């Protein structure tokens, strides 16, 4: 292949839009196909640690994300009664603070506006049904029957990636026995940074999204069989978890949990695609290759970093196989470290919520600290 000029990205989420921006910045033509007919990003927030902000800066949007989100310091880890036991999270990197909390919808808008301004072409309500490898590129058949021809294809279609299954066959995400409940609130006046409370049946976090808003997450163990939670169960169950924390900041929120449709409930899964994450001229990035538990608040950060690194390697224009192989060398161990660390933390939380004793020497805060510190290393 002469050079990579024409790229198809499948999936317009955080990873897909990030790689579109990174490629447009170096003048490469980009088409995104997104399966949803229109973007409808749910309104709870997302934590962007300093390494995520550093990667967003490479895309020209870190300041916009901080202006429209809420930078904050390390997270205070507390007992259920509010006694602080540690501070966790990636330390600041250069001018980037330890954390930026932001609404998912706003992060999506920030990426979308930049990507559109740079000339990315979006096609909504579309996916790929077939991928045909060629020596010098890929041909695809889209779900509307049209065909396309590209130098490379990037699968950024999330944990249940269709591109992954078309290229590599069947890999199923691994449900770990934990679930998360999320809800957005007005910001309590005493909330000066992120907070995490560790209880016996759950873990509860309060994360700033703007000067005026926060979101809460509660991690719980609902059962090995991943039971279906009916809508009418949402509010009573979430409130009963919140009762475990007798601190004013949590208690004051309980009466504000009123709309079951605003309770965002989700079982937690991981996925590790074995290396390499590419075949021929197609490659998987983001959750489709390495979905972590949210325990380290780093999945999106990894997807954004993937985007930055892939574009840096593509810019060298020395052949797809050399580009993809260097991408793997820079990404595989780092992503594996985060997935595995999140799985360890998840396993220990599950033991706690089931009333089991943690093995001697286990310290969840120390595990988080070690992994967050490792993420400050350059990508
Ligand atoms: C409960 C929870 C909390 C989290 N909290 C954090 C956090 O605080 N900080 C953090 O950094 N990360 C967090 N994450 C992880 C983060 O959300 C993911 O790592 C990130 O969204 C991955 O981006 P992605 O682009 O790979 O996939 P996605 O964001 O899932 O995007 C995939 C896109 O592809 C589209 N798509 C799907 N299938 C197809 C198809 N067949 N064809 C075309 N398009 C398709 C989807 O509609 C979507 O737009 C959390 C995850 C969970 C589950």
Structure description:
- The protein is of the alpha+beta class and 379 residues long.
- It has a domain of 201 residues: FAD/NAD(P)-binding domain (3-Layer(bba) Sandwich), CATH 3.50.50.
- Helices cover 34% and strands 28% of the residues.
- It contains ten helices and 20 strands.
- An eight-stranded mixed sheet has the order 6-5-14-15-16-13-17-20, sandwiched between helices.
- Helix 8 packs antiparallel against helix 9.
- Bound molecules: flavin-adenine dinucleotide.
Present as ligands are:
flavin-adenine dinucleotide
Relative strand content: 25-35%
Tell me the Rg in angstroms: 21 Å
Residue-averaged pLDDT, rounded?
97
How many helices?
A: 10
> What CATH first level of the domain at 6-49 and 60-66 and 104-173 and 271-350 would be assigned?
Alpha Beta
Query: Which strand order spans the largest sheet, edge to edge or round the barrel?
Result: 6-5-14-15-16-13-17-20
Are there runs of 5+ residues with pLDDT below 50, and where?
A: none
Helical proportion, percent range? 25-40%
Which word captures the global form?
globular
If classified by CATH, what would the architecture of the domain at 6-49 and 60-66 and 104-173 and 271-350 be?
3-Layer(bba) Sandwich
Question: What's the name of the CATH homologous superfamily of the domain at 6-49 and 60-66 and 104-173 and 271-350?
Answer: FAD/NAD(P)-binding domain
Name the structural class: alpha+beta
Beta strand count: 20
End-to-end separation? 27 Å
**Which fold name is given in CATH as the topology of the domain at 6-49 and 60-66 and 104-173 and 271-350?**
FAD/NAD(P)-binding domain
User: What is the succession of H and E elements?
Assistant: EHEEHHEEEEHEEEEEHEEEEHHEEEEHHH
Largest sheet: 8 strands, mixed
Keywords: Monooxygenase, Oxidoreductase
Organism: Thalassobellus suaedae
GO molecular function, one term: monooxygenase activity
Domain FAD-binding: 6-314
């Amino acid at each position: 292949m002469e050079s990579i000029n024409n790229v198809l990205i499948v999936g317009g989420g955080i990873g897909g839009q990030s790689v579109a921006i990174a490629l447009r910045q170096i003048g490469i033509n980009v088409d995104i196909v997104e399966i949803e007919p229109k973007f409808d990003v749910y309104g709870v927030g997302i934590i962007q640690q300093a390494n995520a902000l550093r990667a967003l800066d490479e895309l020209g949007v870190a300041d916009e994300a901080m202006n429209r989100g809420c930078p904050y310091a390390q997270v205070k880890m507390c007992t259920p009664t509010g006694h602080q036991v540690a501070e966790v999270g990636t330390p600041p990197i250069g001018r980037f603070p330890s954390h930026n909390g932001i609404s998912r919808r706003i992060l999506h808008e920030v990426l979308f506006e930049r990507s559109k301004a740079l000339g990315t072409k979006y096609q909504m309500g579309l996916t790929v049904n077939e991928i045909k490898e060629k020596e010098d590129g890929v041909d695809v058949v889209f779900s509307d029957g049209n065909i396309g021809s590209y130098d490379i294809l990037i699968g950024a279609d999330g944990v249940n990636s269709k591109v992954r299954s078309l290229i590599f066959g069947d890999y199923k995400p691994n449900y770990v026995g934990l679930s998360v409940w999320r809800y957005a609130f007005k910001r309590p006046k005493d909330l000066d940074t992120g907070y995490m409370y560790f209880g016996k049946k759950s873990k509860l976090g309060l994360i700033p999204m703007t000067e005026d808003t926060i979101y809460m997450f509660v991690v719980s163990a609902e059962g090995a069989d991943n039971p279906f939670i009916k809508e009418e169960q949402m509010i009573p169950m979430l409130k009963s978890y919140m009762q475990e924390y007798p601190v004013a900041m949590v208690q004051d929120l309980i009466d504000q949990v009123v709309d079951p449709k605003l309770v965002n409930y989700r079982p937690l899964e991981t996925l590790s695609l074995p290396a390499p994450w590419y075949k021929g001229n197609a490659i998987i990035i983001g959750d489709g290759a390495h979905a972590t538990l949210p325990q380290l608040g780093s999945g999106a950060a990894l997807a954004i970093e993937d985007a930055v690194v892939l574009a840096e390697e593509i810019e060298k224009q020395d052949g797809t196989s050399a580009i993809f192989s260097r991408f793997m060398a820079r990404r595989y161990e780092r992503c594996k470290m985060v997935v595995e660390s999140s799985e360890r933390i998840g396993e220990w939380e599950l033991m706690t919520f089931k009333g089991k004793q943690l093995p001697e020497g286990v310290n969840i805060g120390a595990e988080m600290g070690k992994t967050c510190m490792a993420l400050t290393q350059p990508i």
